[in-house]
């Protein structure tokens, strides 16, 4: 094909325009290189890429355009996030206690500490007391800075409670003493209140078993007129000591009628091959009464007495130290709620793994510790 350009005749080939396009540019993309126009002219010309109007506008100032559109997109979300966080903080603050409460014992540093297990499995060290001791200390109330605490009175209670685990959250109070620390009013700054419970009768030892728990606590309550009361509790342990009982004379029992009838069985041609013999200490805990009684038996200790066959007439002395085991005194019908009894269980095992046992109840009591034993 011949054309006249600037008075000169020039032969050119066919002119074809091709548009290559991949995808659509988004509004937030600063420089979308996804499409271009290619001009295919005569054989003597090179392929020249022709940018599209959108690509040219984006290439002119890509970062500013992208950031501007992104800010327009994000600004409503950011404001909504701030408002939701503020609302959440307001809700949390409404249920948060307006003050901190601390309970301390008067002789806490010098008093013996014992370990008790909490519901989460962790061990907590608490002071130990005996029955008829005086329990004294201080309660400190520290308001949150910038806030005042309007209350209807501050009181402290000494409670002895029994909790059955199948009735979790329901406590039976067998001891309850109350002291009023302050009448209704307002607290603007940290205040300290002394308290004292004189010669408190605490008849039962603290106990934390499988299905039942017996505990002693100090409970501080700050009544509030239009909100939930502020409650703080502090555990302590009670250990009561018993004097050594007198030793009774041994008792022998026979089945039959004296000087008249005695029954005795003898089996001939019988053999029993003993493999080992062991002594066990078992604790039996029973809660409830009647058909609703729960019984849990736990083996606390095993002591091997013999390994192999015994010799006829042989005597085996036994001395079992109880210090390594977590034992408590025997509890008998505590507040008509539970019993804890201990048993010695003698077990014989033969070569065919058959077990023969004899069980005898024993009574546990706690002696006053001496400096040598401690």
TrEMBL record:
Belongs to the VPS26 family. This is Vacuolar protein sorting-associated protein 26. PANTHER family: VACUOLAR PROTEIN SORTING 26 RELATED (PTHR12233). One of its GO terms (biological process) is intracellular protein transport. Pfam families: Vps26. It comes from the Eukaryota. It comes from Oryza glumipatula.
């Amino acid at each position: 094909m011949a054309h006249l350009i600037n008075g000169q005749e020039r032969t050119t080939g066919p002119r074809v325009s091709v548009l290559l396009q991949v995808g659509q540019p988004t509004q937030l993309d600063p420089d979308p290189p996804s499409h271009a126009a290619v001009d295919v002219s005569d054989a003597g010309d090179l392929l020249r890429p022709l940018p599209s109007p959108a690509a040219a506008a984006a290439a002119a100032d890509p970062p500013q355009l992208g950031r501007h559109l992104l800010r327009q997109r994000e600004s409503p979300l950011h404001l909504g996030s701030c408002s939701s966080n503020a609302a959440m903080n307001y809700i949390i603050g409404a249920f948060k206690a307006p003050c901190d409460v601390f309970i301390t014992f008067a002789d806490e540093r010098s008093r013996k500490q014992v370990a008790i297990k909490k519901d989460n499995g962790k061990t907590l060290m608490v002071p130990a007391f005996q029955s008829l001791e005086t329990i004294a200390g201080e309660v400190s109330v520290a308001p949150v800075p910038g806030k005042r605490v309007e209350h209807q009175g501050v009181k402290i209670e000494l409670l002895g409670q029994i909790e059955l685990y199948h009735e979790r959250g329901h406590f039976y109070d067998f001891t309850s003493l109350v002291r009023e620390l302050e009448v209704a009013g307002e607290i603007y700054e940290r205040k300290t209140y002394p308290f004292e419970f004189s010669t408190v009768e605490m008849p039962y030892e603290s106990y934390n078993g499988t299905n039942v728990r017996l505990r002693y606590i100090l409970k501080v309550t700050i009544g509030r007129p239009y909100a939930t009361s502020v409650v703080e509790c502090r555990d302590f342990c009670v250990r009561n000591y018993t004097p050594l009982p007198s030793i009774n004379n041994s008792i022998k029992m026979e089945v039959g009628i004296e000087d008249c009838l005695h029954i005795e069985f003898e089996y001939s041609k019988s053999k029993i091959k003993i493999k080992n013999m062991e002594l066990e200490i078992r604790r039996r805990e029973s809660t409830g009464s009647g058909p609703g009684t729960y019984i849990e038996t736990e083996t606390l200790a095993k002591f091997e007495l013999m390994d192999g066959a015994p010799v006829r007439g042989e005597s085996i002395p036994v001395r079992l130290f109880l210090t390594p085991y977590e034992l408590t005194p025997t509890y008998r019908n505590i507040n008509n709620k539970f019993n804890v009894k201990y048993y010695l269980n003698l077990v014989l095992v033969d070569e065919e793994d058959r077990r023969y046992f004899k069980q005898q109840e024993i009574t546990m009591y706690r002696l006053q510790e001496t400096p040598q034993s401690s």
